[in-house]
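sry for the spam today, last one i promise. struct tokens for design, 192 residues
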């Protein structure tokens, strides 16, 4: 990300215990921080105010388990990412988000990931995503076993300029490795 400014205020504790072979035997962190980050997005400077962020990590069997929880605007994020203790390679990731407005997704979307999808969402959709839960593994530096789900409500979509908008969509979506299935529970489409 093209950071313009970054400040962080950190407090808490961290303990690392090594074996005689300098392998991590135990690792514990309990850190709290607040941060203000300025990032250039869409040719303007976006301000991210992260409050009461918590970072925890510990060891379990052959993994280092990391959790990061933070609030930004009206959203609460929860990330869990695990590393193998032997090689420190990322093994699996879990992302949970309580609520985000679709017009704010660009603020958190990775810069070079599926730009066309982000452009379509940003220009053709409005509404709210809730209870987002995404899980995936990383093998040989590639994402695999991607699964997840989310609820959506008050969503309006303009599929094509020549079509009527669909609005007030509500439902649940399920994410699999190569698809997203939307179960609609309600909405209006002007009889389309």
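last one done:
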């Amino acid at each position: 990300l093209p950071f313009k400014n970054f400040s962080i205020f950190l407090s808490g504790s961290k303990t690392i215990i090594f074996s005689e072979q300098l392998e991590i035997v135990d690792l514990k962190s309990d850190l709290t921080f607040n941060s203000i980050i300025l990032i250039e997005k869409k040719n303007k400077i976006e301000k991210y105010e992260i409050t009461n962020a918590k970072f925890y990590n510990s060891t379990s069997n052959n993994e280092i388990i990391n959790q990061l929880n933070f609030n930004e605007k009206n959203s609460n994020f929860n990330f869990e990412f695990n590393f193998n203790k032997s090689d420190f390679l990322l093994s699996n990731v879990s992302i949970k988000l309580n609520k985000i407005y679709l017009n704010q997704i660009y603020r958190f979307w990775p810069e070079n990931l599926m730009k066309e999808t982000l452009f379509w969402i940003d220009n053709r959709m409005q509404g709210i995503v809730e209870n987002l839960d995404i899980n995936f593994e990383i093998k040989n530096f590639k994402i695999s076993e991607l699964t997840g789900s989310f609820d959506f409500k008050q969503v309006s979509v303009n599929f094509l300029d020549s079509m009527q908008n669909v609005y007030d969509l509500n439902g649940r979506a399920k994410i699999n490795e190569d698809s997203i299935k939307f179960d609609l529970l309600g909405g209006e489409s002007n009889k389309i």
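The two ends are 41 Å apart (CA to CA). ok im logging off now
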